[in-house]
Amino acid sequence: MQYGYFHDKNKEYVITRPDTPRSWSNYLGSTEYGAIITNNAGGYSFFQSAAQGRFTRWRANTLPMDQPGRYLYIRDRESKEYWSASWQPVGKPLDKYKCVCRHGTAYTIIESAYDSIESETTYFVPLNRHFECWLLKLTNQDKKTRKLSVFTFMEYANFWHFWQDWVNLQYTQYIMEMSLKDNIINHAVNPLLPVVKDDKDAPQSKHTFFALTGAEIAGYDTDRDKFIGPYRGYQNPLIVEQGKCSNTIAVGDNGCGVLQADLDLAPGESKEMMVIMGIGQAEDEGKKAVEEFRDLSKARGEIDRLKKYWHNRLEGLTVETPDSEFNSMLNMWSPYNCLMTYAWSRAASLIYAGERDGLGYRDTVQDLLGVLHTIPEEAGERLELMITGQAATGGAMPVVKQFDHHPGREKSPEESEYRSDDSLWLFNTVPAYVKETGDLAFYGKVLPYADKGKDTVLDHLRRAIEFSLERSGNHHFPLGLSADWNDCLQLGQKGESIFVAFQLRYGLKTYIDICELLKKNSEVDWAREQLKTLDNNLHKHAWDGQWFLRAFREDGFKFGASESNEGNIFLNPQTWAVYSQHLSNEQAENLMDVVHDRLATEYGLMICDPPFEKTDLEVVKATLFNKGMKENGAIFCHTQGWAVIAEAMIGHGDRAYQYFRSYMPAAFNTRADLREIEPYVYCQFINSKTSPRFGASRLPWLSGSATWSYYAATQYILGIRPEYDGIRIDPCVPSDWKQFTVNRRFRNRMLYITVQNPDRVNKGVKAISLNGEKIEGNFIQNDLLKESNSVEVMMG
Ligand code: GLC
Fold it and tell me: 573 phi and psi, to 5 degrees?
């Protein structure tokens, strides 16, 4: 079943029928003013934090899953019939009601047609503003004049902290106050406290405004319960049914933003109006916003500006390959997904309801990898923030609170709080950042530790290695501490993680590269020594006979051992053994064959197999999850990119691509009922074959899978890899790809790369010409690059 299509030119996903298996969402705004919107106009808005700045109401896990939302009711004043400008909430029968939703770059357009009236609503947040706009255009396709009323609707939270709004009703329902100033609704929380003008964090400053421009206001309601009426719902509000607002002002209980506009439309005529809702007081920020957008043509200009801004970001890397679904992902949705994951971490979606605020260390450092070329400066700032979240021990604070982080003054984490993998992710991201920007001086930049002292970035990296070396166990592998990457393994403080041992290997190897570059010979010697010892220990203790073990628990129990009935093979240590280059090519090939036999399914690779059913919860929390879900043997998408990279590194272009496509969202566009979630978004996991829901996918948007999939596709399948002094072109593609092109921005210059593959090989570059000049090997030296470069690559 198909519900929509990719409109590549517009960078939109167009949903042609609104009854999608789940609500399919998009993001609006920026990290200052954020919003989630679904194909049926559901979702919520927030200032800076989805948990602590959530000023509109949304109830997690309700039915439908996206209500309430940003609704526009349309009522015919003659027939008294009403519907909504999005299919929901009124939900007219789909044989009479047509609806198309276009999710684009930080905007969403919902078009409807019912009873000869067409509507088009564009939802967006103008750049650098703290308010959102819903630009509504109504067109009369009837032969007679139509007399219509429009009622806006937004439901407010009574407190900006979502949890207080949900549970502390005895308090929050009695501090909220609605008012109307110059026809602009004001929604205030704690208005009886004096306003602290320039401090948006002060609770007494939490006002929002709601205005309508482009139309005369015929009435208003700010009392939600009066607007909806008793025992009714969003689908049939009493006031809309009666056709006239009752001008209520809610003081306490629950507020809403309803403004009524009456309009007449001659045959063929169109009229526009726009809702503006945002942060600040009606009489102040509200008035200013209304002034700014009194002329609605300004709004169209803002939409264009917004599109340009986003398209420019995404045009830093575009592709044209034989696989149109791959192109749709790479040219828009994959980097866009990475940008949203970067922006909102694990805090704002229809699944992450805000409870997880702050930047989880390991997730955030990995998320950066997916946005380095789209937003290098911003990513650099976030990376510095994360480096200052590392403690002087070399371990990291589990969570960095971006609005409340005090480098050098944070409390040192307790030993029991450290995760064993956290700081080691810096070895993926820091060099990738330096390679993207060419800013070698970054390694020498002095940054504070979270708790005390400061060091150069290079020394921060060394401390990360030392942290692991100083905390190693009986087999000399890094201790499990409170967790390693897999949150479910209960290794105990003294257990050891073999996955992290491979991360450490990757870290040491990377550290050696950097120190060689910086000519720090004694550091190179030190790290080589450590690497040798680690490799010996991996040979001696980590191999199970056919694959690598996953971990040793502190009581001696082995995870990922053939002798176990459950979880006897795990994916991560195998892919990381290859990725960290611990193995010869032949060993890697054999190991990846075992992975293929044991873990591959038609929708991706399982995180482990068989799933846990009987193993004690003290040993592995995965037993808590149903079989084939989450860490209990699901196709955990975060890990898929590593399998793709491993296969590409050993030259298996067909298998790497097969893996990539097996879970690629767009590949499910015509089978959307199977995957259920957005066919344009990566997700945390896909139910694997041991689950009764095999193929159904869960937790869209915010997960490491967006980043690693994009990284694997661009750097290992297409093989365009920035290095310190240039860019390497080392594709590993399916043998049926005859040609492809990649346009890539690199340090403010453009490369227009055409790759020919006449011999249909998977890997290998025979010749490159740069601007007509032949160059040796597959590496383009930075100083040979001009502003715009044509690169011809011949595989073979
Ligand atoms: C989730 C967490 C991530 C963890 C992974 C595996 O995605 O956000 O931190 O590594 O699960 O347990």
Answer: -65, -25
State both tokens at 238: 């009493």
- pLDDT of 330 over the 80 cut: yes
pLDDT in tens, 558-592: 999 999 999 999 999 999 999 999 999 999 999 99
Q: Which residues are catalytic?
A: 487
Strands 773-775 and 635-636: unpaired
**Structure-block tokens of residue 62:** 């309700």
Largest CA distance in the chain: 86
In angstroms, the Cα distances linking 522 to 518, 528, 531, 724 are 11, 10, 14, 21
C-beta 703 within 6 A of ligand 1: yes
For residue 69, list its beta bridge partners. 42
Residue closest via CA to ligand 1's atom 9 equals 363
For helices 640-649 and 571-579, the axis angle rounded to 10 degrees is 40
Measure 381 CA to ligand 1 centroid, in angstroms: 23
- The pTM of the full predicted model, rounded to 2 decimals, is 0.97
- As given in the structure block, the two tokens for residue 641 are 């990119």
- Cα angle for residues 412, 413, 416 (degrees, 5° grid): 150
| Ligand 1 near 572 CB (within 6 A) | no
Please give the full DSSP string across 266-331, using - where no structure is assigned: -TT-EEEEEEEEEES-IIIIIHHHHHHTSSTHHHHHHHHHHHHHHHHHHTTEEEE-S-HHHHHIII
Give per-residue pLDDT as tens, 390-420.
Answer: 999 999 999 999 888 999 999 999 999 999 9
Q: Which two tokens stand for residue 284?
A: 């102040």
Q: In this prediction, what percent of the chain has a pLDDT beyond 90?
A: 96
Which residues pair with residue 396 across a beta bridge?
A: 390
Give the nearest ligand 1 atom to 638 CA: 7
**Residue-wise pLDDT tens digits, 116-142:** 999 999 999 999 999 999 999 999 999
Q: Pocket of ligand 1, candidates 341, 357, 482, 638: which has the most ligand atoms within 8 Å of its Cβ, to mutate?
A: 638
Who contacts 315 (Cβ-Cβ below 8 Å, separation ≥6)? 743, 745
State residue 287 phi and psi, 5-degree precision. -60, -45
Cβ-proximal residues to 330 (8 Å cutoff; 6+ apart), any chain? 317, 318, 319, 321, 710, 713, 714
Nearest Cα neighbor of 573 from 597, 542, 612, 614 is 542
